[in-house]
Amino acid sequence: MKSLLFSRFLLLLPWVLIVIIVLDIDSSRAPLPALSPRGAAEGGSGGARPPAPRRRPEAALPTIYAITPTYSRPVQKAELTRLANTFRQVSRLHWILVEDAAARSELVTRFVAGAGLPCTHLHVPTPRRYKRPGLPRATEQRNAGLAWLRQRHQHLPPPQPGVLFFADDDNTYSLELFQEMRTTRKVSVWPVGLVGGRRYERPVVENGKVVGWYTGWRADRPFAIDMAGFAVSLQVILSHPKAVFKRRGSQPGMQESDFLKQITTVEELEPKANNCTKVLVWHTRTEKVNLANEPKYHLDTVNIEV
Ligand code: UGA
Ligand code: MN
After folding, report:
1. Read out DSSP for 169-180?
2. 71 close to ligand 1 (CB < 6 Angstrom)
3. Is 294 a catalytic site residue?
4. Sign of the four-CA dihedral 102, 103, 107, 111
5. Which one, of 228, 224, 229, 234, lies nearest residue 261 by Cα?
6. Ligand 1 in contact with 170 (CB < 6 A)?
7. Of 62, 49, 119, which Cα lies nearest the Cα of 87?
8. From 79, 99, 140, 256, the catalytic residue
């Protein structure tokens, strides 16, 4: 009797095991997230966001809003292409592209449509009197980005986890930078490479606090930091509705300080990038392109957007 039972058990065992394995595979498949919805290029005033699939780990991540001023010039599309190639790899990044122009250009409009990431396309021209060497650039464009952000969020209930940073179109950004800035509580800072006449500038950190600045240029700046060297939480942007970039009295290199002193203090800054000892963004500047041999009148048989 015992041996009969045992042989039955042995006969059934492989089948039971197969059923267990199949069930297990099925249940481990179930919670896999759907492919993330991307590529929704959204025009000027914004639109409804697609509902986030449930159980998506990145759904809890604060959105990173990158405000990029940009202006028409021969290298513009190349710069935007480099930037989009970086941003496309960052989860939950919303690109606010602000053209320095009286109207949206066809080039940027087409580019945004094919960029493959959530994007808001704004425009505002810099008044002619401010388009002079030695004057701060992109003041009106960054303010337009801030205004859009505030308007979009004023009717939504808190908390709206989000982080803002100013991403000029010619800099070089590592993917690690976005991981660092994502945890910004109020205002975070980090080193910037190739700026201020040195290989890098950085906030000097002692016991986890910023106590000074390593810089070779205008060390008297209250925040001796480039635009690419800090991020601000959305909450801080919303709770300081008057904080903007100012034209009046603003000197070259002081835009960052003038803005930051409206929203924070040096003591409050949160050092990122391993206590500000790693360079994760570079203030690269693209060489002016040589168009010496460009014909005066269109000679080619086709018209190509460059
Ligand atoms: C440095 C800082 O890195 C900038 O953040 C700061 O705005 C600038 O100085 C300044 O002096 O205001 P720099 O490399 O000299 O940057 O400036 P650009 O890269 O030429 O311009 C900064 C941003 O403004 C870029 O995204 C650029 O596309 C945009 N820009 C520039 C305009 O929208 N309109 C312009 O006429 C010029
Ligand atoms: Mn630049």
Report:
1. TT-EE-HHHHHH
2. yes
3. no
4. positive
5. 224
6. yes
7. 119
8. 256
For residue 277, report the distance from its CA to the centre of ligand 2, in Å. Answer: 22
Neighbours of 182 (CB within 10 A): 21
- State if residue 223 touches ligand 1 by the CB under 6 angstroms criterion: no
Give the residue ranges of DSSP H helices in the chain.
Answer: 2-29, 76-87, 106-113, 139-153, 175-181, 234-239, 255-260, 273-276
Q: Is the CB of 139 under 6 A from ligand 1?
A: no
Cα–Cα distance for residue pair 208/274, rounded to 1 Å: 10
Closest CA to 250 of 122, 165, 138, 123: 138
Separation of CA 275 and ligand 2 centre (Å):
25
Cβ partners under 8 Å of residue 244, min gap 6: 143, 146, 259, 262
pLDDT tens by residue, 227-257: 999 999 999 999 999 999 999 877 889 999 9
> Roughly how many angstroms between the first and final C-alpha of the chain, as a whole number?
86
Report the SS3 class of residue 154: coil
CA 140/CA 151 separation, integer angstroms = 16
Q: Report CA(81)–ligand 1 centroid distance (Å).
A: 17
pLDDT, tens only, 46-84 = 444 555 555 555 568 999 999 999 999 999 999 999 999
CB of 283 closer than 6 A to ligand 1?
yes
pLDDT digits (tens, 9 = 90+) for 107-134: 999 999 999 999 999 999 999 999 999 8
Q: How far is CA 97 from CA 41, 86, 109, 135, 139, in A?
A: 11, 14, 10, 21, 14
**Nearest ligand (C-alpha, residue 96):** 1
- 205-211 contacts: CB < 8 A, separation 24 or more? 205/271, 205/275, 205/276, 205/277, 208/271, 208/275, 209/267, 209/269, 209/271, 210/266, 210/267, 210/269, 210/271, 210/276
